[in-house]
Amino acid sequence: MTQVTPEHAPAPAGTSELVNPGAGIDYQHLLDCVHCGLCTASCPTYTETYDENDSPRGRIYLMRAVTDGRLEMDDQVRRHLDLCLDCRACETACPSGVQYGRLIEPFRLAMAQNDRRQGTQTDWFHRWILFGLFPHPSRLRLALWPARIAQLLRLDRLLVSTGLWRILPDRLGRLLTMLPPLPGRLPNLPAFLPAEGKRRARVALFSGCVQDVIFRHTNWATARVLQKNGCDVVIPQEQACCGAIHFHAGHEEPARELADKNVAAFDSSDLDAVIVNVAGCGAMLKDYGQHWPGGGETGPGTLANKVMDVTEFLDQLGVIEPSGSIPMRATYHDACHLVHAQGVKQQPRNLLATIPDLELVPLPESEICCGAAGTYNLTEPEMAGRLSRRKLKNIQETRARLLITANTGCLMQIDCESRMSGAGLRVLHPMELLYMSYLGKQPADYPRLLREDLKNVPGV
User: Fold this and answer.
1) Cβ 366 vs Cβ 333: under 8 Å
2) Closest C-alpha among 344, 291, 330, 327 to residue 428
3) Which of 44, 209, 284, 354 could form a disulfide with 244 if both were Cys (CB 3.0 to 4.6 A apart)?
4) Backbone angles phi, psi at 244, to 5 degrees
């Protein structure tokens, strides 16, 4: 294995000396790529630009050349690396087992650290929105009150239909269009929800940050489905954001602080699993041990080993089949950080197959990113828009009126594209549809049905 040379070693913290971005990478990971090109057809950016530098093997070549000192880390190289969605579809396609995530993520971290050494300030959008708002549910909840009022008065529709949203700062305008209809206020998830029927497992639910504010109804549906499958559900009230927003933007220290809070909040010793219903959060939590190894029995790796996506867990447990008929034509979109980063593909489909009369049709290019990719749709709106339009076109080819996907970003991105184009597509999480089937109801008025059901849940 090629060793990192002394001149590539990281500079001490607090110095202004720049670091080769490839210095902290295991060089063997770069050598694993044999440049066969089988990854290119699965890469969203390459399928749009057909630029070899926007393909996985092209980016690996760029990173290796920079690491070797054969190529300068200039704006052009950086642009090709920044355009990567980190969807990791290339990992699924690669016959050589290249761990692309272990290349692009530390390389980007080092790029961001170099920026700070040079005195580059974090822009206002990252500082006030992505870092200052999104990871903090109480702040985000307060900030969304004007949006709730605007939706109540249908001012949001006016802004979209007239195009007035375009006069806002670019990323704020995009954020406005992405905001889904906000359901009426729902109660907080309590610290504990008991199993219904015979107790089969004891699990903890990761409620997330943006997820619990904008998609609390999905968290409740997830908890209720787990209860109906015989699970005691613990919801640690001290849990925090998973840290993915900071980590993927190159800010490792605040991401580690959030990870430490979650390690302290989730006592995994008496849990069968820590359940996640957001693909991006699940991938981040499962990578805690990789990002921050060590810590023994109470370290990040211990928590990571207990994390499971809810579809993965229920499929392994053996789902209690629902009886409520949902006679709809639906299609399923594979969230990148579920199918590629976590390797969870068939399990959601297995669960959906248990719903009586649901017609689930295959989606062309199901494993190609929809353009959400965490906050990519806010920082790279042009490419994200191209990918979301491509995704909607494929969905419309199926003639399905219901799109199912297991990630917050995908739900918002595809729903936004549908609303902006007038496609009239209904977008739901698998747990929401499964929950409706357990209730024997149709998903047309799902949030109202949820509120009615919660009136019968003890302790809520």
Assistant:
1) yes
2) 330
3) 284
4) -65, -35
Residue 140 covered by a domain: no
* Length reported for the chain: 460
As to burial, measured by CB atoms within 10 angstroms (0-12 exposed, 13-18 middle, 19+ buried), residue 411 is buried
Residue 113 neighbours by CB distance under 10 Å: 20
Q: What is the DSSP letter of 4?
A: P
Helix (H, G, I), strand (E, B) or coil at 62: helix
pLDDT in tens, 223-241: 999 999 999 999 999 999 9
CATH code of the domain containing 289: 3.40.50
Instruction: Looking at the structure, tell me whether residues 327 and 431 fall in a common domain.
Output: yes
Q: Is residue 239 part of a domain?
A: yes
In a domain, 185, yes or no: no
Q: Which domain holds residue 19?
A: 6-117
Say whether both 92 and 156 belong to one domain.
no
* CA pair distance 36, 296, nearest whole angstrom: 39
Tokens of 199: 């107790």
Please state the pTM of the whole predicted model.
0.91
pLDDT tens digits along 164-198? 777 777 777 888 888 888 877 899 999 999 999 99
Is residue 327 a part of any domain in this protein?
yes
Domain count, the chain: 4
